[in-house]
Amino acid sequence: MSKLFESIKINDSISLKNRIIMSPMCQYSSEDGFPNDWHLQHYVSRAVGNVAAIVLEATAIVPEGRISNGDLGIWKDEHIEAYKKLTFEIKKYNCVPGIQLAHAGRKGSTEKPWLGNHHIASTEKNGWKTVSSSNLPFNESDEIPHELTIPEIKCLITDWGKATERAIKSGFEILEIHGAHGYLVHQFLSPLINHRADEYGGSFENRIRFVLEIVEEMKKYITTQSLWIRLSATDWAENGWNLEETIKLCKILKDNGVEVVDVSSGGGVSFQEIDVKKNYQVPFANEIKNQVDIITGAVGLIFEPKQAEEILQNNEADLIFIARELLRDPYFALRAAKELNEDIKWLPQYERAKNNHYA
Asked: What sign does the CA torsion over 183, 69, 221, 156 have?
C-alpha cells in the first residue's frame, strides 16, 4: 500500500484513515464569526472527497483577532450550535474535524482579498485597533498596533482556553494553535517583531512564553482531543525566527502535550525573501520530524499525488497538508488513489464513477 493511504494513530482516541489533511484556508465569508451555508458545503464536500481530517480556517478567539471582518470566530457561546452542525456533517464521512484557533494581531483589520486586501484603519468601516507584542506595524503605512500589556496578555491566554472549551463542545477533535504566518503567536516568537523588555520578550525562553502559556491553558479543557500547532519554521529574514529555534520550541511543545506540528514558514515581516518552489518547506518538516521525533505535516506547493507519496516514502513528514489543490479539486484524494493504484472505498452514491466506465 502507498504511504499516503496508510492510516496513522495520533493518540489513543484519534486515528486518521489516510495522511491527507485539508489545510486551513480562510474563506472570508462569515458574518459575526458564524459559519454559514458556504462553510458547510465547502468543508463537507472535502470530507466527501475522502480527506482524513479537515482543519478549519483561522478562527478568531476574540473579535479583534480576526484577519478580516469576514473571518470565522469562536469568541462567544452562540457560535457553538452553528459549528455543531458542521462537525456532525464532517464526521458522517469518517473525517476528523479540526479547528485552527487564531489571533491575527497586527495583521488584523484588513479588507477581504477580493476587495483589495489592504489594512483598514481603526477609524474606518470594518476596521479596529490591532494589537501585537510590540508597537511595530507590518507595513510602514499601517496603523501602529497597540503593544499588549501583561494583564492583556493574560486575558488573551484565558480567551484561548475559553475558545478551546467552545471548540470541544462544538465537536472538534483536533485543536490547532495558529503560531505561523506573522499572526499574534508568531509576533511573540520572532525577534524581528517582538522588541519587548519584559518576561515576554528578549531571550528565546521569554519569546516562547506566550505560546507555552496558551498550551497550558488549552490543556485544562482537552481530554481525548489532539493538540496541534502550525509554526513558521523560519522568517526568511536575517536575524529572525529560524529553524534552530523552531526545533528547540518543538521539543518543549512535545513535552507539554502537543502531538502534531504543521510546518510552514514566513509571513512575519514584509521584507522576507522566500525562494518559493515545489517542496520548498518540506526540508523544515523533515528536520523537525527527525530531530524532535514528533508527528509532522508538510505543506506548501504540494499538488501532485506522487509528489505527496514521495515525501512520505522519504520519511520527510508523516502527514500531507493540502491547501490550494483542494480548492481546485475537492476530490484530490480520490484522484490520488487512482494515480497510486490504491483501491479505496468510494461512497455508494459515487461508486458508479470509480472505474471510468462511460456507460
From this structure: positive
- DSSP symbol at 126: T
Calculated CA dihedral for residues 296, 299, 303, 307, nearest 10 degrees: -40
Dist. CA 119–CA 258, nearest whole Å:
33
Residue 357 — pLDDT band, cuts 50, 70, 90?
A: low
Q: Does 340 have pLDDT greater than 50? A: yes
231: its cell numbers: 509554526
The CA distance from 320 to 21, in Å, is 6
Query: d(Cα 70, Cα 74) in Å, to the nearest integer?
Result: 13
**Neighbouring C-beta atoms of residue 89, cutoff 10 Å:** 17
What integer pLDDT is reported at residue 275 of this predicted model? 87
Span 96-101, average pLDDT: 98
Which residues have a Cβ under 8 Å from the Cβ of 1 and sit 6 or more positions away?
342
Q: Are 54 and 40 in contact (CB under 8 A)?
A: no
Give the pLDDT score at 359: 46
DSSP alpha helix (H) spans, the chain: 37-48, 80-91, 150-169, 184-189, 204-207, 209-218, 243-255, 282-292, 305-313, 324-328, 332-339
